[in-house]
Each structure stands twice: as C-alpha cells, then as structure tokens.
Queue: 4 jobs
Job 1
Amino acid sequence: QKELAESGGGLVQPGESLRLSCAASGFALNTYAVGWFRQAPGKEREVVSCIRNDGTITIYADSVKGRFTISRDYNTVYLQMNSLKPEDPAVYICAADVLCSTVSDRRAIWGRGTQVTVSS
C-alpha cells in the first residue's frame, strides 16, 4: 500500500524554524513529483511548494518565497521553513503524483498532515 507520512510539525515562536519531512512507504518516492500544501481553519487548502522527481523546484507560493526551501533525497521530501510568521500556522500536507501539475488531484497519494503552530 502506498502511503505518505509527514513529521516535524510543532509549536514555535515567530522567527523560528521547522523542518518538515514527508516519507514514503510502499513505493519509490523518487519517481514522483511531491507537493507540500497547507490548510488553516476556515481557509482553502493552498499549495506551498512542489519538487519534480528530478529535483527541479517548480513552485513556491509568493507568501513563502525566500523563507521556505523544498528538497528531497531518495524516499523523503523536506520542507525547511525559516522565519516563520503568525500567518503560517496550518496543517501541512504532502502529496505525490507524476507531475507537479497533477499533484493536487484527489487521485494523488496524500499524507495526513502535520500541525504547525506559530505563537509567541
């Protein structure tokens, strides 16, 4: 069974950092594009970043450019989040599919998410 599991969320103060991980089981993640999404209460899910299977970074939301960095190794994709702001809290979710353009599709492989909270 193909599964994704996120980890690394937590409670931090504004300006601090977190690194999220998205680990695959049951399939080879290195053959998929992987996207990070976030969803805050009462808001629609938004794409944060996406990385192609070849490691080419294609997307960063304007709100995270210069602060977040996506990277990958064989079976895990990471999201390094620096200078966290009060508007960044959400459940962060990763998803895998063939292309970054399809990674938000409901037929993609989705994780369950990890909570990020930013509070002083």
Note: The first strand starts at residue 3 and ends at 7.
Job 2
Amino acid sequence: QVQLVESGGGLVQPGGSLRLSCAASGFTLDYYAIGWFRQAPGKEREGVSCISSSDGSTYYADSARGRFTISRDNAKNTVDLQMNSLKPEDPAVYYCAATWECIWTQYQYDYWGQGTQVTVSS
C-alpha cells in the first residue's frame, strides 16, 4: 500500500525551528519529486517547497525562501523540511505529496500524506 506519513509538527515559539519529515511506504521516494504544502484555517492550500527527482533541484515559495530547507535522505526514504525563523504567519497543517516533477499545481500530485500541525505561538 502506497502511503506518505508526515511527522515533526508541534508548537514552537516565534523565531524557533522545526524539522518536518515525510516518510514513504510502498514506494521509493527518490523516484518522485516531493512537495511540501500547507493549509492554514480559512485559507487555500499553498505550495511551500519541492525537491525534484531527477537532479535534486529545490524550489521554494517566496514565504519559505531563506528560512526553509528541503532535503532527501534516501537511506531513510524520507524528505525533510527544516523550518527556521518561524513566524506567526507560518502555522498551518503541513502536507507532503509526490509527483513526477516539481510543480505548484496540486492536482498533479499523485500521493498525499495526512498532514502534520505546525503552531507558532509565544
């Protein structure tokens, strides 16, 4: 059974860091481009970052660039999102998803995880 599972969410103070992890079962992540998306209450889901399958190229939304880093750990079959300098506007449910090549269009992603909650509060 193909499955993506996110972990690492939680409560952090503004300026703090979290590391999210996306783990796969039933398939090998390095054959797929993996995107991270987030959805805050009352807002549409938006793309945050993506790492390609072909050459490891990385892509970031303007809101994430310079603060977030996406990376692969092929030995663990995971894709991580290191989030630093978290801001009050970052809280959301964060999802990872798999597709063939990085694209911000969500419907082109074939597999989605259930999400992990990130809360930023003092």
Note: The two ends are 40 Å apart (CA to CA).
Job 3
Amino acid sequence: HVQLVESGGGSVQAGGSLRLSCVASGYSRNCMGWFRQAPGKEREAVAVIYTSDYAMSYYHDSIKRRFTISQDNAKNVTYLQMNSLKPEDTAVYYCAAIETSRLLCGLGTAFRYWGQGTQVTVS
C-alpha cells in the first residue's frame, strides 16, 4: 500500500511561483503524476514522470515551459515546480502513483494511488 501526502499549495498572485511536494510512504512506485481539478471541471493530468532508469517526463500542453516535475528517489518525494502562474491554474492539485512500465507511464495512465489534494489559488 502507498500513502501520498501533498503539500506546498497556497495563494499566489499571477506570475508567481509555488512548489508542490508529494511524499510517498510505503513501497515506492515508478510512475508518479500530478493532476488538477478546477471547480466545475474534470480532473486533468498536469505532469507525469517515470522514475526508473532514465527518467521520462510528460506535460500537459497548457503548462509546458512553466511547470517542471521532478523526483527525489532517495526521499520518495515528487515535486511540481510551478512558475509564471496564471489564474486558470487555480485548482486542487493531486499527486498520484502506480507501478507500471515506461511505455504505459504517461498522461493517460490510470493511476492507482492518490493523495488528498492541495489547493492552489492564483489571483
């Protein structure tokens, strides 16, 4: 079993930055993702990283070159560095995990484990 705990959310002005952290307890998984859900909208994948061997990362088009996902395998922490934040980035951000192959780790992956979410508000 994996428990995911997110932190780092908050309120920030447009153009500002935040860094989200996701601490995974229990057996680590090699495919980690960040998702977000805005009020009245479906949850969407923001960024995904395959953490085994050669790390691969994938990003939603709306956040490319603004957000960066990274992994500290020694600490079992997945980060989402968010720069140049926009009001449309306002959402609850969720961390997710699954053990899978590199080919199946991507924005369309059906993740198995989920955190409780952290609110990000950009004004």
Note: The chain has a mean pLDDT of 94.
Job 4
Amino acid sequence: QVQLVESGGGLVQAGGSLRLSCAASGLTFSTLDAAWFRQAPGKEREFVTVLRLRGISGNTDYADSVKGRFTISRDNAKNTVYLQMNSLNPEDTAVYYCAARFAGSNAWRYWGQGTQVTISS
C-alpha cells in the first residue's frame, strides 16, 4: 500500500522558517517526480514546487510566490522529500500536500493527507 505522510507543519511568526517532510512507503521517491502543493482557506489547491527525477537537487521548479524562499530536496536513503521554507509570511498559511507521479506523467497519482502551516503576523 502506497502512503505519503507529511509532517513538520505548525504555527510560526512571520519571517520564521519551517521544514516539512514527506515520508513515503510502498513507493520509492528516487524513481518518481515529487512535488509540494498547498491550499489556503477558500482557495484552490496550488502548485508550490516540483523535483523531477534527475538527481537529488536538480531539475526543480518553483511557483513565483515562493521562489528564493522555499527549497525542495530529497533524501533517497530515507525515502523522504523535504520542503525548507524560509522568510515565511501570512500568505503562506495553508495546508501543504506532497505528491508523487511517475516520471514523464502529467498526473499526480499519489498524495499525502496534508500538514497545516500557519504564519502569524
């Protein structure tokens, strides 16, 4: 059974940092594309960042709103994907989801349950 389990969310003040983790079981991140999405209250789920299947830190894309502040990475030995978030602001408040897909596919097939991130001003 495939599972993605996010952790690391919480409440921090504006300007602070958080690191989210997404641990996988039943699949191997090193063979898949991985991504983070987020959904703020009353808004649609939006793309945050993707790490494609080309090494641990290569071939990434970021939403303009997080570029320069967020970093996605992968630890193959731990089968875990991370999202380092710095310089957080209240607009980053959302439920953050990790997702995985087969390389070359457009469909994000596997999703975690989400972790809440709340930034206070």
Note: The CA atoms of residues 37 and 47 lie 5 Å apart.
